[in-house]
Structure formats: structure tokens, C-alpha cells
Amino acid sequence: MNTILYKASERGHANHGWLNSYHSFSFGGYHDAKKVHFGALRVLNDDTVKGGFGFSKHPHDNMEIVSIPLSGDLQHQDSTGRNEIIRQGDVQIMSAGKGIAHSEMNANKDKEVKFLQVWVFPKEQDITPRYEQKTFAPESRKNAIQTVVAPDDSSAVWINQDAWFSLASLDKDFNATYNFKGKGNGLYVFVIEGSVTVNGQELSKRDALGISETDAVTLTATANAEVLLIEVPMQLN
After folding, report:
1. SS3 state of residue 9
2. Which residue in 190, 22, 166, 192 sits closest to 91, CA to CA?
3. Each residue of 121-173: pLDDT tens digit?
4. Residue-level pLDDT at 56
5. Is 152 left (phi over 0), alpha (psi -120 to 50) or beta?
6. Looking at the domain assignment, is residue 177 inside a domain?
7. What's the pLDDT tens digit per position in 43-68?
8. In this structure, is residue 5 part of a structural domain?
9. Burial of 75: CB neighbours in 10 Å, binned 0-12, 13-18, 19+
10. In angstroms, what is the C-alpha Rg of the chain?
11. CA dihedral sign of residues 208, 183, 159, 218
């Protein structure tokens, strides 16, 4: 088993006033040669946007972009005419494919929106741009692993990659085992809240551990914890 520890305190950081962003991987003005990507996982940004502000319309292509609101409401608009609100409990994916432009704004003027934005390299290039959004019941991940993004599960949002995203809400001392779905894949364990131990490695809030060359991982909550699990191919096409 191979592991890579990503400490929260060592992430890139950019505070633009309206946007406070922490980068798990090289992004924008932050570059670390050791943190460019983890397999097909390219970006994990931990963003807080002030009320009334957001990202104006900008283009993307050939990237799978997943947004997971942690609190507040995020308004999405794109060049296909789509106009949606993404709330806590929702998971959104945009397959940029051959090209799409979108904006992401705080839907409220009086409170912040906090969300994770994750980019994954696609399996197929230049597909027709695609958007999907679903709401997931939090009770379904209580001391359980809930799949929210998958290429092969109609209850999850679809992704153009052999990748799976899961959420888990674990009580203190609860053990959860994650079984890998793809041979040769890696798993990125990101602690949203609380703390867990993964194969003897203690992870606190916003810490992460990249794991590969194994087929199962056990997580033990050392405090009540919210965890995001991202399984991706380790070899890029």
C-alpha cells in the first residue's frame, strides 16, 4: 500500500476578499510540484464566497467538475441556458466536454456560501457538454458510505471517468470499510469535519490521505466526522 499525506495547513491559499480559497492541488497562482494531481484527481478547492459575489462566466473544456455545497446556496448558470440553485445536500456535476461557459454565484446577499469544487480528468475527450444535479439524503450516509458520483450507478450523478465519489457521516469510534471499485485505482480521503484514522494515520479537519495499491481501506472516526472519499484511476490516458 502506498500513501501520501496532505495536511490542511500545507494547502495553497488565496484570499481575494470576496473569495477565500484553499487549494489541495496546484491551482491559479499556487504551484507545488509535489501536488499537481492525485491520479485523475486534478483539483480540490475549498471555497468560501461572500454574499452577493461569485465567479463570473468563464469557459472550461475536457474536465469533469463536481460541486458539493457545505453551507449556503450556489447559483449556477451556463451557456446552455441552464440556471440552477445548488444547496447543502446537493451534488452537481458538469462535464465540460468540447466546451462550455458557466458562472457560479452566491445565491444570497446576506450570508456566505461554502463549497468544495473538484476537477477530475475525463475518460473520453470532447463529449457533448453535460450537466446533472441530485439531492442526497444525509441519513443515508449515517455510519455508512453513500455513493454520490459514479459512472455506473443511476442513483448517483454520472461522471465521464471510472471514478466514484462517496460521502460518510461517522459517529465517534465507528469503523467503515471502503472497498475499491476499480483495479489499480487510488482513493483520496478528505476529512470535511471531525477526525478519522486511516490505516494508523490520524487525519483532522481538512486533512487528506491519498491511498493506492490496495483494494480496501478502513476508516475509524476518532471524533464525529464528515468524510469525502474520491476513487480515481491512478494512470492517466
Report:
1. helix
2. 166
3. 999 999 999 999 999 999 999 999 999 999 999 999 999 999 999 999 999 99
4. 87
5. alpha
6. yes
7. 999 999 999 999 988 999 999 999 99
8. no
9. middle
10. 17
11. negative
Query: How far, in Å, CA of 90 to CA of 165, rounded?
Result: 13
* pLDDT average, residue stretch 14-29: 96
Q: What percent of the chain has pLDDT over 70?
A: 100
Predicted model pTM: 0.97
Confirm if 146 and 166 have CB atoms less than 8 A apart. yes
Q: Are strands 157-158 and 145-150 parallel, antiparallel or unpaired?
A: parallel
Assess whether 89 and 155 both reside in one domain.
Answer: no
Last residue of a domain, one of 123, 155, 173: 123
Residue range of the domain that includes 48: 12-123
Please answer whether residues 135 and 84 qualify as being in contact, where contact means their C-beta atoms are separated by less than 8 angstroms.
no
Tell me how far CA of residue 16 lies from CA of 9, 13, 49, 216, 234, in angstroms: 19, 10, 10, 40, 33
Taking Cα atoms as reference points, which of 175, 189, 164, 186 lies closest to residue 220? Answer: 175
- Look up the CATH number of the domain holding residue 164: 2.60.120.10
Print the SS3 string covering 139-185: HHHECCEEEEEECCCCCCEECCCCCEEEEEEECCCCEEEEECCCCCE
Per-residue pLDDT band for 80 (boundaries 50, 70, 90) equals confident
Contacts of 133 (CB under 8 A, 6+ apart): 84, 86, 90, 91, 92, 93, 157
What CA–CA distance (Å, rounded) separates 42 from 233? 12
